[in-house]
Amino acid sequence: MKKILPVALVQERNHGDAEANLAVIEQRVAEAARQGAKLVLLQELHNGPYFCQRQDVCEFELAEPIPGPSTERLGRLAKEHGVVIVGSLFERRGAGLYHNTAVVLEADGSLAGKYRKMHIPDDPGFNEKFYFTPGDLGFHPIDTSVGRLGVLVCWDQWYPEGARLMALAGAELLLYPTAIGWDPNDDQAEKDRQRDAWILSHRGHAVANGLPVLSCNRVGHEPSPVGAAGIDFWGSSHVLGPQGEFLAEAPVDAPSVLLAELDLRRSEDVRRIWPFLRDRRIDAYGDLLKRYRD
Predict the structure, then answer these.
(1) Full-prediction pTM beyond 0.90?
(2) What amino acid positions are annotated as catalytic residues?
(3) Which structural domain range is residue 104 located in?
């Protein structure tokens, strides 16, 4: 018997500040709910611009506690429309201690759980190690009224270990709030390679774990505050089935409320014909705990 879950991904550009962005999110969630969505995924750090393009201590003023103002507002929004919302916030845990944190708001408005981003990048234009402490909550799915959600964040998407551990803990789907884009100076061939690799990584997680994958990216050009070229966020938010098949995909260059229906029963059916979890050689994987095999 099918177990259908209608989902929506809110792919947006930055509108300036938290108030402006949250106002747009409220409109988009209402639109998604009117069209039947029961689970809504937002993009990474959706309250403002992607501030990690530079290192500036003033940006820490954007952080907030969890629970806090944004979780309260998102909770009210979830309750108003009867949807589960997965958001992404700059968490102030304590003085000098900050995280890049995904939050899950239950359909009754309560905070169902949170996940702190485990893998933190440090690349030109992505200075996240300056701002974020690596997560310490581990890879544990969050139980909700729509299912057990394996929530990860952006850079986590390149690591099969995180997706696998969520699957081993019983996640019914994998969700990635994301902020990824091109350097405008790259040629088109390089841009295509990067975007294709990003999508391929998600398709790999879906296939290897027999799970649907949802990835919600931001879109639009965000200028660099330090004179660099900035970032062209490439959108392309997508919903994949448990064999890596595309169920829905958003454009590269425009906001979108991307809708899809997931049949959560299909994961059971797929795992019966591709029993990767059954055939894992857990007796032979000890070296995975090493940084490198010299």
Answers:
(1) yes
(2) 44, 117, 154
(3) 4-289
